[in-house]
Amino acid sequence: MPELPEVEALAGFLREHALGAVIGRIDVAALSVLKTFEPPITEMQGKDITDAARFGKHLAVQAGGLWMITHLSRGGWLRWTDNPSATPPKPGKGPLALRVHLFTPEGLTPAFDLTEAGTKKRLAVWVVRDPQEVPGIARLGPDALEVTELDFAEILRSTTARIKNSIVDQSLLAGVGNAYSDEILHLAKLSPFATSKSLSDAQIHTLYEAMRTLLLDAVDRSAGQDAARLKGEKRSGMRVHARTGLPCPVCGDTVREVSFADRSFQYCPTCQTGGKVLADRRLSRLVK
């Protein structure tokens, strides 16, 4: 799933390539992707793109006083093409969900596609006059790169949830998902099962610094990357996430995994849990 660094990079990519362009035809290949119908998405046609922004893990494009906001979910992505087909796509065929044709000030006619891999279709698009009309944005907590350390500490002490769950809860903290939370906890040398409320001041400080260091580094590495290369850039920077069975680059211990019904997370026992291996079962519990 694209998280804060990738969505920030996609917004930057659109600011560089799409600002000032006029939106032409919008092809909707998967009607289910649209979560709003008033105003209609066709109302954006003929309007100049004036901004591209990020709200948590939501990607947004502004044109003519309207916002087209996208949550890419687990399998979604944005793809840019300089020479799009003039033929409208056939509904339900392939990963394409929506295509936005553009006319640039230089006379070019590129397009950007919203695509989704896999069979579970969760990619969502809203057209609104105010981003706060999107329920997921209205519920967002402070952004992970804007929250102060004091507010971060208050957020963690307000919940009894596991720290892994706390930092991916978008209503508490916006922008961090499963992959970067694994990396942040590894850098901070904290167990994913540590209770948020029980963390010491020193642990909270370490976690806050790890979060900022890792996210800022990922944003820097992603900035200026072509949209098509961002996924590879994300994977190249991972030390434990999606590296089950490989050696930890810090201590050499084997990276382990805990699986849930529809997701998993990775960690290093030596770096994070004092050598204890967390039980890898659907109802995951710490090995006693």
From TrEMBL:
Keywords: DNA damage, DNA repair, DNA-binding, Glycosidase, Hydrolase, Lyase, Metal-binding, Multifunctional enzyme, Zinc, Zinc-finger. GO terms for molecular function: 8-oxo-7,8-dihydroguanine DNA N-glycosylase activity; class I DNA-(apurinic or apyrimidinic site) endonuclease activity; damaged DNA binding; zinc ion binding. InterPro entries: DNA_glyclase_Znf_dom_DNA_BS, FPG_cat, FPG_N, H2TH_FPG, Ribosomal_uS13-like_H2TH, Znf_DNA_glyclase/AP_lyase, Znf_FPG/IleRS. It catalyses: 2'-deoxyribonucleotide-(2'-deoxyribose 5'-phosphate)-2'-deoxyribonucleotide-DNA = a 3'-end 2'-deoxyribonucleotide-(2,3-dehydro-2,3-deoxyribose 5'-phosphate)-DNA + a 5'-end 5'-phospho-2'-deoxyribonucleoside-DNA + H(+); Hydrolysis of DNA containing ring-opened 7-methylguanine residues, releasing 2,6-diamino-4-hydroxy-5-(N-methyl)formamidopyrimidine. Its cofactor is Zn(2+). Signal peptide: none annotated. SUPFAM superfamilies: Glucocorticoid receptor-like (DNA-binding domain), N-terminal domain of MutM-like DNA repair proteins, S13-like H2TH domain. Pfam families: Fapy_DNA_glyco, H2TH, zf-FPG_IleRS. GO terms for biological process: base-excision repair. Residues 2-118 form the Formamidopyrimidine-DNA glycosylase catalytic domain. Residues 239-273 form the FPG-type domain. Belongs to the FPG family. This is Formamidopyrimidine-DNA glycosylase. It comes from Rhodococcoides trifolii. The lineage of its organism: Bacteria, Bacillati, Actinomycetota, Actinomycetes, Mycobacteriales.
